[in-house]
Write a structure and sequence with these properties.
It is a single chain. By secondary structure, this protein is an all-alpha fold. It has one domain (22-130). The chain is built from 4 helices and no strands. Helix 2 crosses helix 4 (98-130) and helix 3 runs antiparallel to helix 4 (98-130). It starts with a helix and ends in a 15-residue tail after the last helix. The model has no long low-confidence stretch (mean pLDDT 88).
Length: 145
């Protein structure tokens, strides 16, 4: 159910009122590459996970994003599946001592986390930009109470 909803969101070309449609896959790819979802040239991040307020190339405002904890959850989901599968496969096939498992898999876990976390955050911000979420459409989100 959730996978179908996500795929439908990505494939949809639904317009958001009078806002022009934005290319979702392109924004995701640019965000994953840590570049501006609008132009693809400017750097999205000023530091490891600190998003620039504006794109240094085109001036697109990026401070609207609300990535929150989602990048960490997706990073844990991906790295957890890879590392746990690797530990189980190596344990079944080779039965190495626990310290060998730690020496092998902890650096892999750290490297994957450091590589994926900013890229997943960038892709999430790119998606938010593409679907006009959180002020990216020119108007601030207001609670509907």
């Amino acid at each position: 159910m959730e996978a179908n909803f996500l795929l439908e969101c990505l494939m949809s070309t639904k317009h958001f009122g009078d806002r022009p449609p934005r290319p979702r896959w392109q924004a995701l790819k640019r965000g994953f590459g840590k570049t501006c979802p609008n132009c693809g040239n400017g750097r999205m991040f000023g530091a490891f996970l600190k998003v620039n307020d504006r794109c240094p190339s085109c001036g697109e405002e990026l401070h609207h994003h609300q990535a929150d904890d989602a990048p960490a959850y997706f990073t844990i989901l991906i790295t957890g599946h890879v590392v746990v599968a690797g530990v189980l496969i190596s344990e079944q096939n080779f039965s190495p001592p626990i310290w060998v498992q730690g020496v092998i898999w902890l650096p892999i876990l750290l490297a994957m986390t450091m590589y994926l976390l900013p890229r997943i955050k960038g892709a999430l911000i790119g998606f938010q930009w593409a679907v006009h979420m959180h002020g990216f459409g020119g108007a601030d989100d207001k609670p509907g109470f």
